[in-house]
Amino acid sequence: MAEQGHRQGERAWDPLVRLTHWTIALAIVLNGFLVDGDALTHIWIGYTAAGLLALRLLWGLIGPENARFSSFPISLSAASRHIAGLTRGEHKEHRSHNPLGALMVYALWAMLLLVSVTGVMLESEPFPEHEGEYSQHDEDDDEDQGAEIIEELHEVSANLLLLLAALHVGGVVLESRLSGRNLVRPMIFGDKS
Amino acid sequence: MNDTATTRRIKTDKRRASALAVVLVVQALASVFFIADVGRDLRWGGLNPHSVLEAVVALALVLGTTFGALQMRQILNRIKQAETAMSIASGALFDLIEARFQEWELTPAEAEVALFTLKGLDIADIAQARGAAQGTVRAQMTKVYAKANVSGRGQLTSLFIEDLLATSDGGGSREVP
């Protein structure tokens, strides 16, 4: 028979998961590498990423089963079992994120949240009329000490976010190689129909 | 391949879900910008009719996004249910066909010809698909009909429909008027 119903066990991401995934990825690449940190565009992209994250988190509460937090709980023991399985060449099918991937997902979200919050705090004026208006930090301001710490935090967490993103890409490539399953495809096309 | 009503409905639902995903993203972004704006207004302007109205709009946007997301989940669930039902149905039919073919002791070649016949291909199509002469295919079909003890294609097909109707008794979700 040409088609048989073998799609049950296969992983399939819904349109909202895919859309938020790639738009957040784009926002991180743009703000991390391409757009100057002092540019107004940087702020807009940052708010956009925060909005996308908020939507994805909402989806984690009320979305379909495999998009929900309950489908990929934080579990160190499950993650270490997963690694052990990988080294033995065992491949278990996961409807949602695998236990190791789940840890990465939460780490990425937490870091993005930290970057967003510190970014908003840095920017007391969300919609400055003119570029540069917001970056006029007077050196001898009382609040300057706090602002500097937050700026530092923003930069450090942003760099950590980029590092995590790189690890995430590496993990996906490695897992795809080891398991012989293309993990990227369902994130682009959803399921195989 | 021809679309059945169910596959058409699944396709429509999938398009709807994709469109809704885009709308939700736009709504979520609008919510964030509105909330940020309300925050700014409250900080600089304090509580006034303008900022209160803006806060209400922001709240409405968040609620709208939430309900949109709930609606989207319903559509996704509907797609999943329809797909599951279809794969169960096609799986059941496939099992039934295989069981019958074994029972009739069809050779692999005869089984393939019989399957093509059930799918509605005519002798010329089957001959072409199998790279065989039409005479060979005709002979194989005659063998199949003889083994199945039926007079022709129509009876062969109706055997399976009969079986399906019989097995779906009670288990299926038939609507009773």
TrEMBL record, chain A:
Membrane topology reported for the UniProt record: Multi-pass membrane protein
Domain of life: Bacteria
GO biological process, one term: respiratory electron transport chain
UniProt GO molecular function: electron transfer activity; heme binding
Subcellular locations according to the entry: Cell membrane
Domain Cytochrome b561 bacterial/Ni-hydrogenase: 13-190
One Pfam entry name: Ni_hydr_CYTB
Keywords, alphabetical: Cell membrane, Membrane, Transmembrane, Transmembrane helix
Transmembrane segments: 16-35, 41-62, 100-122
Major place of residence: membrane
A GO cellular component entry from the record: plasma membrane
PANTHER family found in the cross-reference section: BLL0597 PROTEIN, NI/FE-HYDROGENASE 1 B-TYPE CYTOCHROME SUBUNIT
Name of the protein this chain belongs to: Cytochrome b
Originating organism: Cribrihabitans marinus
TrEMBL record, chain B:
Keywords: Membrane, Transmembrane, Transmembrane helix
TM annotation in the entry: 17-36, 51-70
InterPro entries the UniProt entry points to: Sig_transdc_resp-reg_C-effctor (IPR016032), Tscrpt_reg_LuxR_C (IPR000792), WH-like_DNA-bd_sf (IPR036388)
Protein's UniProt name: Regulatory protein, luxR family
GO biological process: regulation of DNA-templated transcription
Cleavable signal peptide: none
One example GO MF annotation: DNA binding
Organism: Cribrihabitans marinus
Alphabetized SUPFAM superfamilies for the sequence: C-terminal effector domain of the bipartite response regulators
Source organism, top-level taxon: Bacteria
Domain HTH luxR-type: 103-160
